[in-house]
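Notes to self after the call with IL:
- keep both proteins in one doc
- input above output, always
- annotate only the second one for now

Protein 1:
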Amino acid sequence: MLKRTRAGSPNSTNGSPRVAKRILFDATRLAMRGRTNSPTGIDRVVLAYARWLISRPDLDVVPVATWGGKLMPLRPGCLPGLAARAQAMSTETGVKDLKWAALRNALEMDNAPDWGLRPSAKPAKPERKLADGLETVWLFLGGKLEPRAGDIYLNVSHSGLEAPDLLAGLVEQGVAPVVMVHDLIPLTHPEFCGPSAGERHEGRVRGLLKYAALVLVNSSTTAEELGRYASQRSLRQPPVEVALLGLEEAFLCDRADRTTRRPYFVTVGTIEARKNLAFLLTAWRRLAEDMGPKAPHLVLVGRRGWENEAVIDHLDRASAVRKLVHEITDLTDEQVAALIRGARALLAPSLAEGFDLPVIEALTLGAPVIASDIPVHRELARTAQLIDPLDGLGWIEAIQSACDRPPRRPRRPAYSWDEHFKIVAQALGLEAEAPGPLRQVVNV
């Protein structure tokens, strides 16, 4: 387990006046992906941190971007605009309402067309997405950045951390690197990731273990995996702080939604190999064979990712699956919350997760959850029904059983972003009398 340290507050020394702490906030991902209609979990975390920092006038927040191992300053004052743009893209309606109406129609009617739901084209290639993102970042570049002793570099997105010289250079200038690790999946489960993902992530992890003043993690499971990785390789183990991720307002509301005529289940997340959806779709084919016209529907909320050929073959070519399974992207948080509340259960058969935000959202909404029996679900989703992710008969029986009973409403106590940032502020020493482990690094 990574060690925790506590020391005095870095905000005042020997009775001297309190000086605004300067935070170099890495907004690379916010600038590059702020125009996406379907933010990932990491996108949501970056946006939440941007909103938190904007709300702290006592801090001197400097937005930066990383490229090629170098920090590049973004235009002063651009962070509120970047955050507002990202927030607007995730909440605007229009096309989202049309897709929502088509989905509701597909769940209400037998043999209803799924017009407007299934993707009509392959996702853009990573190199095209990268080029588009860099073009966006370029628009916000400006000013001159001079890191100085006492600064905190805050990166909660993994962006740029694969460059070996980034954190080393900051430490040489007296800057305290604080980074968030979301998971170690490319290292623990490389078979679920792209060919180069493992090498990139290993560069990130080795660099942050060597140079980070503090590591933030989203669960004890992630902390234990990081500690185990460092211990097995005899690497430095920096201080760590566990701070569970917060939920957006739409998932904290308690309201009733109109139920559909046919029972349905829902999964939320990028359609990729580690989500174990090929296994789930095979189970759905068996459900269609065994239950006939009483078979439930399945809604997949999320974009098609990579390394998912088996899933796409089911979705595009298996007629039994096509009749019952609906893909949808670009929903608002309110629409996703309503979809989860009306489902017989949220299904999460993942083979590996660092946190699994949709599971926490569903439990908070009071929706039943059937999830894979993996460490992070055992840690954070104890009230869910946990089943071995390869137990096909167990999953089929659980889904059939859930079809026969109305949705339960055992609401989980909500975990808010306010609670998350109280922990983070304490760890960074940004509150009066906050102990925080950074004093010895920041006050050099």
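Protein 2 (the one to annotate):
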Amino acid sequence: MAKVHKQNQESNKSTMLLRGTISAFERSRRSHGFAQSKIQQQLTGAAAIAAAAMGMGATGMGMIGAAGNSDEDADWVEFELDGKQIQGWLWMMPMRNGDKVEVVAEPIGNNHYMAYAVKRDGDDLLAVYPHAIAGRKVHYRESVNAWMWLTIFTNVCMILFFIINGGLAIFLKRDMQLVLLLELAFSAVLFGAMALSVTVRLIAPVRIAEAIFERFGWPDVKNIDLRKTSKENRRENKLPNFGTLYFRYK
């Protein structure tokens, strides 16, 4: 299983597009770590230490917990595709026996393949490797936006706290102005470290996502966001996991 996971973490150009009909389908829901390598766990841990040092104990402890345990639930699937043996980790696979599909997969042995994505003909429902849902430009934009909004929210809350307790006149004091400037700098650094940690943590699935999009022949793979395309193409699907764990691109 460790070998399979190592292969999953490496997005490379050996993937291919397979077409056929699913048979002998088996699925089991399992817990596994997808997003963090050992180095990435260390980066998350460093950000946690920075959070604790700046007095944000709960945030620090939460990030330390994330660094120590990155396991999450996903579908381990095994099936045949017109005689080919397919297996792999997918966030959630809604396909079943008899479905005609396209599979982005990597050869791993004699007639055996590791699946990274499965797309069903007809309704274009798409199952993908966990977190492989957006290109790198989308990923970077979301990280920057999260950093900016967290920093703004924290500082607005701090300002409102001082206004409630001391009124607007409190900001005329030089020492209070210095406190606000220091708090702004500290929060910007803290949330920047957190955003960077998440960005690095998810970069392997982002590379896998781009490999999937390229193999399907979709344009501008760095700007594709499956959550957005699923929302725009929901159709009659009202299930809560649609657009979260399985998707649609049209």
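Annotation: The first helix runs from residue 2 to 8. The CA atoms of residues 85 and 112 lie 5 Å apart.
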